[in-house]
Amino acid sequence: MTVTIGRRELLVALGGAAAAWPLAARAQQTAMPVVEFLGSSSAADRTRLVTAFRQGIRESGYVEGENVAIEYRWAQDQYDRLPDLAADLVRRQVTVIAAHDTPSSIVAKAATTTIPIVFASGADPVKLGLVASLNRPGGNVTGVTFVVAELGAKLLGLLHELQPGAVRVGVLVDPNFAPTQSFVSDVQAAALSIGKQIDVLVEASTGRDIDTAFASLAQKPIDALLVAPSPLFNNRRVQLATLAAYHRVPAIYPLRDFAEVGGLMSYGTSITEANRLAGVYVGRVLKGAKPADLPVMQSTKFEFVINLNTAKAFGLSLPPGLLAIADEVIE
């Protein structure tokens, strides 16, 4: 039996099919896994780190917009916004939460016990309660850690090599950053061993506090300044480098980002590499791995960077031995 379809019926059928195509496309897009990248700072300050994270995901076989959707949530340095951002991700039941830093990791962990979380943090994840242990994280959280608190002695040692005669060293810390106390203890112990005097400890938890801190340091002259690790300080790195130059205080910082914007010296773990590794772990979770079975990785790539232009502006003559061990000299 032959069924004849008239022109009108054919157009109706084709029209119905055409209307269904966008719906099918939307359904396919919805079916894509959704990774939420949660950070306490802002996108403008984290371009390179986001790029590294995407690279890690690509290495795992995922391409943003093709087989995975990545959405970005930033607290814009307002830590009190993080709980609401995390709660929204939980309500939406995203596939994976990529917690970009220590504050967002803590908040994400508190927000859900079911959605997989992959963190990149400079704090001890066991002490913070993010994981049960490094080898067996347990629960729904794993990630990448990098050394922060243990860098105090190294940073002070590099300052000592730069200015052996410096006695009074100021330390700028963020009291709201979890590893701060451990960092300070490390610096103070190291100072005793080399005869340095750490009696100028200045706290800053906002951008305005940083201005006040430098005004305070100007009233208590110091020979050098050590800036402690903190997401806030990294986001305010231009402000810090500018103030150090204005007050002519030789300073060392915990990340290369500071030296790139005019800071004198920096030494620390490559958080770019840490974010790439976090992207790799997110890819493994998307493929079905459970965070409880993925040991916490430690990023072991360190970078010592010297800004030679800033040294010349300060009238400093850098020891050849210091230049020889630098991973990069910015001229």
The strand count comes to: 13
Please report the first level of CATH classification, the CATH class of the largest domain: Alpha Beta
Distance between the termini: 85 Å
| CATH evolutionary superfamily of the largest domain | Response regulator
The largest sheet, given as strand count, sense and whether it forms a barrel, is: 7 strands, mixed
Mean pLDDT over all positions: 88
| Element-by-element helix/strand order | HEHEHEHEEHEHEHEHHEHEHEEHHE
CATH topology of the largest domain: Rossmann fold
| Poorly predicted runs | 1-5, 7-29
Q: In CATH terms, what is the architecture of the largest domain?
A: 3-Layer(aba) Sandwich
What's the number of helices? 13
Structural class: alpha/beta
Binned, the helix content reads: 40-55%
Give the key terms.
331 residues, alpha/beta, Rossmann fold, 2 domains, 7-stranded mixed sheet, 44% helix, elongated
Structural overview:
The protein has 331 residues and is of the alpha/beta class. The protein has 2 domains: 31-147 and 271-301, Response regulator (Rossmann fold), CATH 3.40.50.2300; 149-269 and 303-330, 3-Layer(aba) Sandwich (Rossmann fold). The chain is 44% helix and 19% strand. It is built from 13 helices and 13 strands. The protein has helices spanning 7-31, 47-59, 82-92, 102-111, 152-162, 180-194, 207-219, 231-235, 237-246, 256-260, 271-286, 308-314, 320-325, and strands spanning 34-39, 69-74, 96-99, 117-121, 141-146, 168-173, 197-203, 224-227, 251-253, 265-269, 297-299, 302-307, 328-330. Strands 7-6-8-9-10-12-13 form a 7-stranded mixed beta sheet, with helices on both faces. Helix 4 (102-111) links the parallel strand 3 and strand 4 (117-121). Helix 2 packs parallel to helix 11 (271-286), helix 5 (152-162) packs across helix 6 (180-194) and helix 7 (207-219) packs parallel to helix 9. The longest helix is centred in the N-terminal third of the chain and has 25 residues, at 7-31. The chain is elongated. The model is unreliable at 1-5 and 7-29 (pLDDT under 50).
